[in-house]
Amino acid sequence: MKMYLISDNIDTYTGMRLAGVEGVVIHERSELKDALEQAISDKEIGIILLTEKFGREFPEIIDEVRLHHKTPLIIEIPDRHGTGRKPDFITSYVNEAIGLKL
């Protein structure tokens, strides 16, 4: 199983390539759709890494893929500018998912 990066900047792409993760740098909505379709069609890809910018700008595309495809797993990662998430993002996500306050 492989990971695949869809990035909006060359710095994140370069760092992930140094770690052995293949990927692509894109900037437009249509490019994102094409890159996701290509990654989904490759059965060796088990995890798609997306920079958070795509999650903020095109959430409907990401949500549609998550709803209609069991695999690959889509994970949003921060880029060189840091994360746009709150500091307690993981705790609030777990609280929301399981209904218990930690």
TrEMBL record:
Q: InterPro entries, from UniProt?
A: ATPase_V1-cplx_f_g_su, ATPase_V1_fsu_sf
Q: Give the record's family classification.
A: Belongs to the V-ATPase F subunit family.
Highest taxon of source: Bacteria
What keywords were assigned to this record?
A: Hydrolase, Ion transport, Transport
Q: What class of enzyme is it?
A: hydrolase
List the GO molecular function terms. hydrolase activity; proton-transporting ATPase activity, rotational mechanism
The UniProt entry, under Pfam families, shows: ATP-synt_F (PF01990)
Originating species = Blautia obeum A2-162
Its EC number is 3.6.3.14
Q: What is this protein called?
A: Archaeal/vacuolar-type H+-ATPase subunit F
